Amino acid sequence: MRIYISSGHKYPGWRYGLASHVVLDRLARGLSEIGHEVRYQLRDLGDGRLPEGIEPVRAIRGDEDILHINHIDASETPETRLPWVRSIHSDLLDQGLPRERSRPNFIFVSRTMAHLHRSDRFVLNGLDPADFIYSEVKGHCFLFVACGGIGWAHQKGLEIALRVANQSGITLLIASGSGAPSDKAAFEALCRGNNAVYVGKIHGERKAKFFTAARALLFPTQMNEAFGLPVAEALMSGTPVIASNNGAMSELLELGGGFVCANESDYMNAVANLWRIKPADCRRLALERFHYLAMARNYVREYQREIGRVSSGGPAH
User: Fold this and answer.
1) Mean of the pLDDT values across residues 268-280?
2) Is the C-alpha dihedral spanning 203, 204, 206, 212 positive or negative?
3) Using CA of residue 211, residue 217, residue 223, residue 225, what is the dihedral sign?
4) Where in the chain is the domain with CATH 3.40.50.2000?
5) Nearest to 201 by CA among 19, 7, 10, 46
6) Domain at 129-289: CATH architecture
7) Can you give the pLDDT at residue 317?
8) How far is 12 from 25, CA to CA, in rounded Å?
9) Looking at the predicted structure, is the pLDDT value of residue 313 above 80?
10) Which helix (H) or strand (E) holds 40?
């Protein structure tokens, strides 16, 4: 299958982009590894080289079997007659669009988010196990991760995470930040007087070490979370998760690996029962549900579905 993928980020996504950009980079690699011809259009290749089998392109050629278009706004329609899909990584309401603007060829990143938009099309995000370190030995700190500044961390439930750490007597490591000095100062001020240490932004091997050493990931998001990549990253590291019940958290943890909490009592009960969760079970669930090759195969299924829908007379939208 000839597959065109577009994204508006600078490569590689883990260094320059958002979580959704990291996922698209993994998807392109996964599709190539399972035997498809992948053409990848990016805003900027930066100083990186695409993996073998992925061709950098500047435009659609016209002979593609499917277009996976992600570089334009969800409200826009690409000028093409070819079958196309788009990944939706957040609630359309959070993108400034009514949910009624969802299209039949939108593919959501969780069943929860798809159902919210009256769709049955979703593919769970995927990770590369090689990016993480699995260990059954855990440290004595909780980890809180948010990809952004202080405002974003508050939306991800930082205040709740701080309360859980204080009440449980377990130090909280806060991995977040925009890189701005004022942002760093705001995080450090929050840590003073709380049982917390600010460690800044984390990526690469440093990120893997934090995830595998944590006693648990605290992810008390207050957003209508479409997926929550840190949850999958923690499980891949063999680290249990204590999450809120917002968005897709119940779906990601429905088979185990953590606790879904509705109130403060739930969070403290989760802390008390962390011993029940085995690192090996977390890792197994992650390999089964969040492997990037499984994500690639599931997208191929959706590509074929879209090609069939358009060939049978459905509009390309």
Assistant:
1) 97
2) positive
3) positive
4) 2-126+291-311, 129-289
5) 19
6) 3-Layer(aba) Sandwich (3.40)
7) 64
8) 7
9) no
10) strand 37-41
Which has the minimum average pLDDT: 29-33, 80-84, 168-172, 311-315?
311-315
CA distance 205 to 88: 28
- Mean pLDDT of all residues in 220-245: 98
pTM of the shown model: 0.95
User: 197: alpha, beta or left, given left = phi > 0 and alpha = psi -120 to 50?
Assistant: beta
Tell me what the pLDDT averaged over the chain comes to: 95
**Rounded to the nearest 10 degrees, how much is the dihedral formed by the CA atoms of 108, 111, 114, 120?**
100
Provide the pLDDT for residue 316: 64
Distance CA 175, CA 77 (A): 37
* For residues 215-225, average pLDDT: 97
CA 303 to chain CA centroid, Å, is 21
User: Per residue in 236-259, pLDDT tens?
Assistant: 999 999 999 999 999 999 999 999
- Residue 114, judged by CB atoms within 10 A of its CB (0-12, 13-18, 19+), counts as buried
What is the fold of 2-126+291-311? Rossmann fold (3.40.50)
CB 191 within 8 A of CB 184: no
- Tell me which residue of 238, 163, 173, 161 sits closest to 201, measured CA to CA: 173
ω into 78 cis (within 30 of 0): no
Q: Which long-range contacts (CB under 8 A, 24 or more apart) does 49-53 make?
A: 50/11
Tell me what pLDDT residue 17 has. Answer: 85
Put the strands of the sheet holding 216-219 in their side by side order. 196-198, 172-175, 142-145, 216-219, 241-244, 258-261
Residues 80, 306: Cα–Cα separation, whole Å: 14
